[in-house]
Amino acid sequence: MFATPAYAQAAGGAGGSAIMQFLPLILIFAIMYLLLIRPQQKKMKEHQKMVSELRRGDQVVTQGGVIAKVSKVKDDKELEVEIAEGVKVRIVRATVSQVLSKTEPAAES
After folding, report:
1. What's 76's DSSP letter?
2. pLDDT tens per residue across span 30-54
């Protein structure tokens, strides 16, 4: 008979579905996916495509900021680039950050 109003309100308000409780977490994950994860995956695919299309004669910039010209494509993971006249170094393909100028493929006869 002498129940306080706070005690009486707590007894009836314990309902609610589990989906409604997890909805904020689901929305946060969806927003993070759309704003962070998806654009990063797209950028990574573009970089992989750019690196796979490198060929002899392309002028590139490495992640270290060195401007070089591709002199030989060794294999899937390695390039030989010329950073100065007569100075050739081997680099990993993934370290190419930008292609400054592309060469046209040779015409097949």
Report:
1. S
2. 999 999 999 999 999 999 999 999 9
